[in-house]
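Dear colleague,

Following up on Tuesday's group meeting, I ran the structure prediction for the four-component complex that the binding team flagged. I've pasted the input sequences exactly as they went in, so you can double-check that nothing got truncated or mislabelled along the way. The structure tokens for the whole assembly follow below. Feel free to forward this to whoever is handling the docking comparison.

Inputs:
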Amino acid sequence: MIHVSIIGATGYTGVELVRLLGLREDVVLDHLTSRTYAGQKIQHLFPHLLGNVDHTCEELDLEQVTTDSDVIFVALPHGHALPIAKKAKEKGKKVIDLGADFRLKDAAVYEEWYKVPHTEPKLLEEAVYGLPEWDRDAIKDATVIANPGCFVTSILLGLMPLMKKKDWIVPNSIICDSKSGTSGAGRAGNVANLFTEVESSFKAYGVAHHRHTPEIEQLLTQMAGTDTMIQFTPHLVPMSRGILSTIYATVTGGHTADEIHALFEEAYADEPFVQVLPAGMWPMTKSVKGTNNCQLGVTYDERTGRVIIVSVIDNLMKGAAGQAVQNMNLMFGLAETTGLQMIGLFP
Amino acid sequence: MIHVSIIGATGYTGVELVRLLGLREDVVLDHLTSRTYAGQKIQHLFPHLLGNVDHTCEELDLEQVTTDSDVIFVALPHGHALPIAKKAKEKGKKVIDLGADFRLKDAAVYEEWYKVPHTEPKLLEEAVYGLPEWDRDAIKDATVIANPGCFVTSILLGLMPLMKKKDWIVPNSIICDSKSGTSGAGRAGNVANLFTEVESSFKAYGVAHHRHTPEIEQLLTQMAGTDTMIQFTPHLVPMSRGILSTIYATVTGGHTADEIHALFEEAYADEPFVQVLPAGMWPMTKSVKGTNNCQLGVTYDERTGRVIIVSVIDNLMKGAAGQAVQNMNLMFGLAETTGLQMIGLFP
Amino acid sequence: MIHVSIIGATGYTGVELVRLLGLREDVVLDHLTSRTYAGQKIQHLFPHLLGNVDHTCEELDLEQVTTDSDVIFVALPHGHALPIAKKAKEKGKKVIDLGADFRLKDAAVYEEWYKVPHTEPKLLEEAVYGLPEWDRDAIKDATVIANPGCFVTSILLGLMPLMKKKDWIVPNSIICDSKSGTSGAGRAGNVANLFTEVESSFKAYGVAHHRHTPEIEQLLTQMAGTDTMIQFTPHLVPMSRGILSTIYATVTGGHTADEIHALFEEAYADEPFVQVLPAGMWPMTKSVKGTNNCQLGVTYDERTGRVIIVSVIDNLMKGAAGQAVQNMNLMFGLAETTGLQMIGLFP
Amino acid sequence: MIHVSIIGATGYTGVELVRLLGLREDVVLDHLTSRTYAGQKIQHLFPHLLGNVDHTCEELDLEQVTTDSDVIFVALPHGHALPIAKKAKEKGKKVIDLGADFRLKDAAVYEEWYKVPHTEPKLLEEAVYGLPEWDRDAIKDATVIANPGCFVTSILLGLMPLMKKKDWIVPNSIICDSKSGTSGAGRAGNVANLFTEVESSFKAYGVAHHRHTPEIEQLLTQMAGTDTMIQFTPHLVPMSRGILSTIYATVTGGHTADEIHALFEEAYADEPFVQVLPAGMWPMTKSVKGTNNCQLGVTYDERTGRVIIVSVIDNLMKGAAGQAVQNMNLMFGLAETTGLQMIGLFP
């Protein structure tokens, strides 16, 4: 049995972890913490849990949590995972941080984009970036996992096969036009995210300045082995779940559409959670709703010389809680798909 | 020119008044007040106003507002209209209250349901209930208008022809099952009204205890000339605008389906804002979106002996700002439809 | 291993059966039939199945299907299940009909509401109504199951505890005001169900004339042991999945709110798929999305003397495919919850 | 009085023309034609017109229509406007084609993308492209107007100030990532556009092959005076109305962010229907809902050297019917804003 605690269980990613872990027979949910709702039954706060999960939300008692748990999921805003990871490390426990605290390898870059000091540089060094399709071996041995950002995951899986080819695309020609559902904005009550404001509307935000930019560039640079700069624009879609990224890059030439499509098919042939669509088909977010899947459509536009990749994930699943559980499975020697084999909720 | 101020201009009903009045050539918008956004340009807060309304939101200066304005629209939560109406009355100005402060004729009932003392019993006595289809003559001469509640309007227009017949329906058999879009909940940032919570879901709320209940009963009682008690249940629909009320009542007998349908057609034949649909057609909220219209479908179920009325309005229009402007038109001797002749925004 | 075929696999209920059965280790999917899409891979038609279900849709070959399968799910419009059930019966196989062909015990009533002759009166007599909470013992021994209608299920579970009490509510006082998501309308391309028409709107339909009316009355009459007539009005909600029924009935008197709430809690204490909410809480459809659950809120309004019950289900699950699988589990001696233990997809 | 007929009045653009023209006091609606609904009252087909427009839909009688009308709006699929424009021209009447028949100046390009022969090359030569902000003088004298495509309008208005500068952006660096509401797909009943399929989902379509591509390139080439090739990708947003285009282009250098923003502000300072947002603000589609407005956000990303423009319109208004009426106003010597001064329907 794996003993698990979730820090920040009443945010959308936290409660999605509860959904994924609450019925597993190889997992014990120890502590579900919530500052706002401590003392209340989580099934009354979230009636979709009624009859399935009967925990009472607690204040975080770091000593207790790190004593009782084998692995601690941190589903809190950036900054909060640092002391938790430190204490867990001392006690020999594992941490999966769904926030940004261990994603950027350069603490200075972290501090520039997140405006807080990074107090655990040594842990940062040790931390493993939790994208299994990129480096699952490192994850198996990790103590601290930096679970990737939601936009980031959709983009990295969309570009990885090409980046690994090193010279198939023109450096710095990459444009990532991403669209997200609203659950990515979290569960805080603010006017801009009211149903009345968002419904039947579409907008861009964080143009040229979104915090996921350095994370995407760090990983693409690692994959390609050369400095890579991208353009990233997020948008808000009137839907709860789902991210679709449309990715453009100029191809260096000499590669046919068939060759490029085959590259993707081969790259992901053995991946349980990535599906490459037949040429001419394009994915929609609804197809991966509630699952840990990433679906990819790819084409090469001979007219313009660009490859266009469309990548969809469920932001709360492969973009957050699902990927975190995939990482947990790897860290504990389980089949990677344990508890994650599900068919999307369509329609 | 009519000089107008809007108190609470940055709530949904307030900004809807701005939409209706901002381009009128016979109206001058004097003051738009907002506690939260004082000092900010309203067209930057609400970019749909860009290029059309260039006011800066102000703190409420009651002395100034009542000096400058001929009529003051109060679009604030209950309790706030009382001192405003008092001062306006002193200065000989008119007030249209879109809140609940002057709706319930019995101050004790007001205090029971709204949990605040009513400080202006004399004004309450004078105030006229602003449902033009019920008593437009009284509105013409009014100083203080109690603009009806949104659910209430949909229900009163749905029942008025029957109530006036006195004995066509069984007393206390009325059930009003109402469904509202989310703009009725206002523009405060709370978790329950986030897009992510509301989208693709449907729920009931305030079952057996909603504050519109005594207001509906007061007016039905007036119309029927006999004490009337109803069952009222509101629900939340994942849409921004619109109310649909499904109303059930047991018919005393002796009336045919044709007779009942004809009753409605005659009752509203000359009303500019009420349309009775042909028998067999049922209204949808989208048909009245953005307009001051109420559309009604009516049938008599011979099997069960009940009349069923389906009534739709736009809650921000005939349920709030549109009806308020209709009342203003009447109070200032204008054609009742001035500035309100519009076709619904479909689709 | 249970060998299963799904007739009409490319409608919403059919493909939901595929979702529920496609990953089960105790089930073999034999034939997925579709008139429209025969010859096409179902995972290309429904990309949420990609990588999970690799069947090709087939024309229905009744001889083959009834030879190969232990149980046949029929997810077709009414009329089509009759010859299929006949053939299956001859071969000693089981049939679960998700349509209306075996729901109404009186063939004349069936013919009146569905406008087609009932060709299998003997099978109709044998067929068992597949609402496990009402009579699971009969289901265990059944050959032909009439899977209940979606609206019907939400209403029957909402009323069953009261009906069984025989004299707690006034006969014929029941009003069922139901609201459904759009997947209930099926997957035919018609203008009225286009996104553009339905979005951000709400409407009633089939007022006083919906085909689920006699089915509801038949079962309530059985439960109460006395003729019961209801008023039923369906509405369309801009959401894909979910039904919420608001049910009103006049209480005969002498019963307190606590007593009524306790009646429901006791009635469903051991039911795996029905949850009664604490007094004062009201359910929303999103809480049961993707699950076989029914959640109920109940109150007694002392002012009006009415009980108000709010019942939510996922129309494709407890209202169709989920309940069908629950019935299959019972018919094959499996744990009733096999393959159906899941937490709702919130948000 | 201008006598107007609408050919194809029961599609979404056709009925939007009815909304815009139905209440105008300087316009007479002569004929509303519809193949599918001939003989039916348009207000029963579209109840938002109830009480406002009492026309019966007719079969197209080309002789009659061109005799009675001063201007004929053609709101039909491509190919259908050709014979209508021919006949109108013979009778000395004006035509505004909301389809694609007169948009592409090269008949061969038209035939390649639209797969039908162009039978009226002479009219094609005469036809004027109806984007008033580009060349309103030509529109004033036109007989046949090619009303621009919806995506096209959003992109052209977003790029025009830069294109006119000739050498500010790198040729062929332009990427247009566009997102549209569902009304752009028309009012035909097909499965892919059902509410159940589209709701809470997002997808790309027509990647690298959309028919608006050559139209965009033709106009950009005219504006820049040099051959221009673009990348265009449309997406479908779960909302009825609205288009947002995110446009990327590499700046040749030497231009600051302030300079670029000022360029846009100056270019559109006197345009009644285009608003440039203050730097740092980004538009949302809801702000222009129901209006003829285009709102633009602009920034220059110094890090990447790209300009990013976000452009929003209502696809049925500035993207179709609104722009068509704007063109009509110009052709008949009216104030360009006649009947089009309206504030967006927010929320």
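Residues 10 and 88 of chain B are 21 Å apart (CA to CA).

Cheers,
M.
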